[in-house]
Fold this protein.
Amino acid sequence: MGDQFEHAQEHLEHAAHGEGHEGHAKGTAVLIAVMAAALALMEFAAKDAQTAYISNHIAASDTWAQYQAKSVRYALYLSNVETLASLPNASDPAVQKRIADARSNAQRMKSEAGDGMDQLAEKAHEQEHARDHELHRAHILETASGGLQIAIVLSSIAILIGLRPFKVAGVALAVAAAIYGLFGALSII
């Protein structure tokens, strides 16, 4: 334990006197600049994922609102069919035509080409899936950004006190965070 304390004290003395510290500091400063650039890119990607999340959330909400409107109209047409069928003159050809029209309109609400309730529900589910994917991507990128920020702090400490283990830890964390963020940006994980 005493040897480790003496070794750390020697490092601090060398750092205080600037012995060999200048080359280490310049290299670490360049590393910090690279980490900062990676952090900026990670933040841009995270903002992009957040924007895509919001867009998909709004689209899914709008599609479900359209589905709900069709659902109400569908229920009204079916109610008209029941009401007309219960009339005393339900066998009248004019009433039968109105019943057939109401049934036809109800069926159109249910499965209109590209815009029926069935198609709208499928489209809304796809938009929700895309929304959830973007939220997951944003979380990964934010976590990677946090890792890069910590790596920058560790590397900055390495310059200040001249201990290489902080630099090594900073570099290791930066590499891990960058890989994690890259996988997230490319939607690999």
Notes: The chain has a mean pLDDT of 87. DSSP finds five helices and no strands in the chain. The radius of gyration is 32 Å.
